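User: Fold this, then the next.

Assistant: Folding the first:
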Amino acid sequence: MKYSIKRQMMTVFVGLILFMIVVFMIVNGSFLEKYYISNKKSEFIKAYTMVQEGVENGTIDSETPEKDLGRFTEKNNISIAVIDSEYNVVYTNVREKQMMVVQLFGYLYDKSHQEVLEKTDSYDICKSVDPQNNTEYLTMWGNFDNGDIFIMRSPLESIRSAVTIFNRFIGVVGGCVILVSVLLAWYFSKRITEPIMELATLSQKMADLDFDAKYTSGGSNEIGVLGENFNRMSERLEKTISNLKEANYKLQKDIEQKEKLHVQPLIYPKERLIFARNLCAGYPGGGNVIRNLNFELLRGERVFLHGKNGCGKSTLLHLIRNLAEETGNRMQDHREIETRSGLLTVGAGLTISYISQDTGFLSGTLSEYCRTEKLDYSLLLTLLRKLDFERTQFEKPMESFSEGQKKKVLLAASLATPAHLYIWDEPLNYIDVFSRMQIETLLLEYQPTMLFVEHDAGFCRRIATKTIRLDG
């Protein structure tokens, strides 16, 4: 897996440890000597205080102070010598007393090998190089109030050697730590990723509708809780899908038992019913709604007009109906539309059955509507019953109908009208699912020539044989 969580966890874990080791080694190499010098200066000052008290009290050569001072200097690796004004060694903790005296005078008279770190009236603390062995020391020298002078020193090479050894030790230990961390990261990431992979496999099986698979790793952590939720969701989905299948089976049975709708399409004698070339049109006093439209409608085609609201779909339907009216087929809902330029021709003698987007013009009873539109009243009622229209509504005024009931009246009226062309403007608004399925079955079976506008993408995809896109 390209972006494995296990690999990411191991990389982050090991990278963090490696980063900490490198940082620790850099800090150790850069600052340990400075810290050592600062700490050693404090030890020098403490030793200086102990020697000064002994000098002032006259006990510097007594046994007790020497033991206390000796233990302190030995513990902190400090060499010390005190010399009186006659150059006699009053106190020292080194065997080579004369060497310490020589070095003291060297500090007094040769300052070329010194780097002063701290200077007071009583002493200097500096870094110096012993020219005899080329070894660098931290040195403190000065004088007491009684005229005695002193020197203390501690080698710096020891701390540098300690830094090198410590860094080498950190490198070896760090390598072992990295190796152990890799194993631990692999182990713990494996414990985390295995349940996640099980959940991924389970989700894939659920997507394939295999609900027998269950999460089995358990656990009381977040992943375990998620796994239990997956199991519950799988059970509920299985029940839901089972119920949906059962409901779909019953619906199919109901459809088979219901009487089928039927339509009476007429066969137009010519192949082409409608033709448009570079058509521009709009309503009087307004701009063009239809711009440079080119299309043709042939016998047997079911053409879907596609476009956003206001792009001229309904305008085109009204324009076609207006031209059909000029051939003697007058229809309701007439609207004045101007053809500004281009060409639009409608076949002579073309009979159109039209469903309006608007239902507001419906009024009166169904029998009155049939007389006005010259429809077969009994056929209209039969079609309405097949569309699950209640008989109790037949005698009521259409103004009291719901929008869905009004739309079914227009659908039934269109189906009851023998026509060469069926123009339907959003016929499925407010229509129930069962009736939609009936209408789809009807259109696919009888295959009338159609020009329609509809927002139900599934219906358009299944019914349309051609799509015309209006850019608006």
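Now the next one, as you asked:
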Amino acid sequence: MAVLGVTTVFNPGTAIVASQMNTNFDDIESFVNTTPGLLQLTGGTITGAIQLNNTLTLGTSGAGHDVKLWGDTALDYFEWDADTNKLTIEGANGTTAIDVSDGNVVIGDGSLTVVGTANLDAVDIDGAVQIDGTVTVGVNDTGYDVKLWGATTGKYVLWDEDQDELVLALATKLSFHDQGGGENVVASADGHLEVNAGTTLDITAPTVDINASSVVNIDGALTITGDYDLTMATSNTQILAAASGSSTSGAVTYSFYNDPDLGIARTNTNQMTFCSGGANIASVTTDGLTFGNDSAAANALDDYEEGTWTPTVAFGGTACTISSGLTNKYTKVGNLVHCIFTFATTNLNGGTGALELGGLPFANASAFSYGTVVLGPATMSTGYSFIQIFVNAAATAFFVIQHPTGTSTFGHTETTLTSNYYGQLTYYV
């Protein structure tokens, strides 16, 4: 049995058994603790538990030694390799679990679990990262930049903390709903921002402001549904926009083609005026259409109409048969009606007495009206040199009367069975 001294050397193959040490070296603890000395094991084997109550140093600076600690599972161990200056933990039957060397830590096929807070200076992660909790970068009032690179040169997303802005560099898209879909926002060029939607772009807000300093282009149909006002408040827009001009009765409210003196003005309540060259040309009011600066109701044109009408012919109240397919037209401008007629009688049907023509498109006003007529063949009574049309007040029928020595209605005795009638009549309604 070896003798323990100040320096005891155990040669290769020597076995030190804990039970033997407890029996034969009872004073080893007091010796190691009280006497500076050195226990050297050169290739020996210690079987049993060892308790060290002081610092354990293996080797010296520049001259280290390997240390291997085996686990209960085959091929699993903890090893300090002095030659490579590397600390290795082998697990899962020989697979490297962790490799620490030169300030680097390599974790094998397993996972790293950190309980608590991990304070890391710089992190380089080459694989996928699964984060199951909240990610916070910085604290309130103290932020940090975050950059996400894309697969195309120069494209990235950057949260720039000192500018407090999210940057999508170059033509990087902000997409919605699905990846690679048609719903996105993208700056396709410097100064050109596009908002794209595959089918419909909905903007819902009490007020939507579009601030364009030059032009707003709408490439498709513009439909405004519901009871809404369309108000344009910029000047000199190409199509139609609010403007300022020098019209006589008021400024041009809406101008055309960059001309502030050509457009539409609201010159009064319920009055819209068309302007050209800075002057009022015509106005539309509740009374109708007026011209120039005139807005008087009595001068307003409130109606214009064109059409055809069907004359009737009777002698003494008995209707005659007249030809069809001839021209009988009228034009109504305001309260003035002008009629023309061309027809022929084909049968008097036994009618006798005064000639009465009817069927005017509008009733005459309260005053009498006169017109001209040409009949043929016809014979005026003795003493009469011409005939004309006479319309009673508030009537749609008129008579043919003879002039000038007297006034007499034209009757069946002055016409023939097949007389032709040509005439025109202007009257007020």
